[in-house]
Amino acid sequence: MKLSGTNRLASNHRSTAVVLVAMLVISLLLGRPLSATAQTVDDYAALDLLADILFLVQQNHVDAHKLDQLVDGAVRGLLTSLDPHSEYMNADEFSEALIDTEGSFNGLGIEISVKDDSIIIIAPIDGTPAQRAGIRPGDRISAIDGLATSQMGIHQALQKLRGPIGSVVRLQLQRDQQSAPLDLELRREKIELTSVQGRLLPATPGGPAAIGYLRISQFQKNTAAQLLPELQRLRQQAGNQWLGLILDVRNNPGGLLDQAVAITDLFLDGGLVVSTRGRRPQDELQFTAEKTATEPDYPLVVLINEGSASASEILAGALQDHRRALIVGVTSFGKGSVQALIPLSNGGGLRLTTAYYYTPNGHCLQARGIIPDLVVPQGQWQTSAAGPPVREANLPQPTAVRPAELYPQITTSDPADTELLRQDFQLFSAINLLIGCQRLTGEAPSRAPGGQP
């Protein structure tokens, strides 16, 4: 089929497209923090194909399109074809990306990613509309306000999820092992990210509060500064009853690397915390722990699950490889890539994957995650229909009943019959692990063999 119009006019339009594409490439590659290496002329010959397509679309598509709109779409396609986390953002989207580490925004309170061309939920944030609605890690968002998400990028989805306080958003979710979609209607709130919450837990029902529990919901710019005084408060409150600490990073989607390193540093007196490796020498980085201000070597357990990602995995991986803590739960999300935020001259920017994270023992986290030392799925406890078990003491005229004072460690209340067991089996297991290690050996769980296989 012949195209109408003169060859000269077509050539002029195509030349314009070539110039604009070349200018775009140069603006992306030159003068930015990520500079282009020397390329031969042949390497850029492929730009002719892109220019041809831009020209043909602009001239012949049934709908009129400005060239800058076509270039915007081409660049988005280029970045999203690389990996699930690289993307191009216009000025509004880039500003939105910078909000994520500031500590507050208006929305539902979920961290999302892209997996197999689907918008997948990494984790809901504690105390948010998403968590209260029962949204789970691994749920896939198939529609937002009736619009399919199959062609959406992360920031397009985020823009639709966020909005004015009090406004309503309708979500359609797909959940594993459920054929029917879940339709939810949520109201947006101001999401204030208080990233650290702590409390003391009793080692036995009715016993003294002797086990520290710190929940880290996300690694924001002040997370380490929040955690240290809270940890000191718990230790002082427990006094000489202190049995150890549980760090809970379940459903923690990550955040700032420096905060994860700073918190990990509290529990290590030296050595590598995490390293990054990429194609360029400047992407080969190592982050180490310092000996100053290190916490005493008390028992330590880290709780993880499938919603623990990125910075959470860095913390868990370092403490596991150094055998400073035992990791309890299920395998983490496996988000082990490094993204650089690169501003562009048009006010937009790139989120570009530049390296991968490696644990101290050299294991890459990407698409693998942290494998716990003790695998504990989050089951739901149900009391047997047969009722409580029958023991010798329940039989008529039990013989040789010894005085209870000879067994002070045994309580009249069965630890298995507790509200905590029903609510959070993984946390219950972590508490039992601390107690068991102390009673059996008098040593911290960190002494046990550990590290990623």
UniProtKB/TrEMBL annotation:
Q: Which PROSITE patterns match?
A: PDZ
Q: Where is the PDZ domain?
A: 98-162
Q: Which GO terms describe its molecular function?
A: endopeptidase activity; serine-type peptidase activity
An individual GO BP term: signal transduction
Q: Where are the transmembrane segments?
A: none
Keywords, A to Z? Hydrolase, Protease, Serine protease
Write out the GO cellular component annotations: outer membrane-bounded periplasmic space
> What residue range is the signal peptide?
none
InterPro entries, per database record:
ClpP/crotonase-like_dom_sf, PDZ, PDZ_6, PDZ_sf, Peptidase_S41A, Tail-specific_protease
Listed PANTHER family: CARBOXY-TERMINAL PROCESSING PROTEASE CTPA, TAIL-SPECIFIC PROTEASE
Its family remark reads:
Belongs to the peptidase S41A family.
> What is the recorded name of this protein?
Carboxyl-terminal processing protease
